[in-house]
């Protein structure tokens, strides 16, 4: 994922989460809002309750790969923050992808 496609700042993350809509299931929470820059941006958060740094980074890589593969599902006029929940440990990549795509489709319906 390109640098300009990421939301990294803690302040921006916190403000984004407080002020914007979200959809969730047992595995993810997806916050979304109208974009402020030219391109859609993504933030990925994996809490320390999910596992050690190796596990958290594995989930971040998987989420980035899903975003890359399914870029056409994400609306170009929105920014997204994807938060991984602890239950994600229990599922494989294929099911993770399905659950995230379900949420993105819910975002597209709500917006």
Descriptive report:
By secondary structure, this protein is α+β, with helices and mostly antiparallel strands. The protein has one domain (3-110): 2-Layer Sandwich (Ribosomal Protein S5, domain 2). It contains three helices and four strands; from the N terminus they run H-E-E-E-H-E-H. The chain has a four-stranded mixed β-sheet with strand order 1-2-4-3, sandwiched between helices. A hairpin with a 3-residue loop joins strand 1 (21-24) and strand 2 (28-34). The radius of gyration is 13 Å and the shape is globular. 18% of the residues are buried. The model has no long low-confidence stretch (mean pLDDT 89).
For the residues shown, what is the average pLDDT? 89
Structural class: alpha+beta
Q: Assembly state here?
A: single chain
Q: What CATH first level would be assigned?
A: Alpha Beta
Uncertain ranges: none
Q: In sequence order, what are the helices and strands, one letter per element?
A: HEEEHEH
Quick gist of this model?
The chain is of the alpha+beta class and 111 residues long. It has helices at residues 10-19, 53-69, 93-110; strands at residues 21-24, 28-34, 42-46, 78-84.
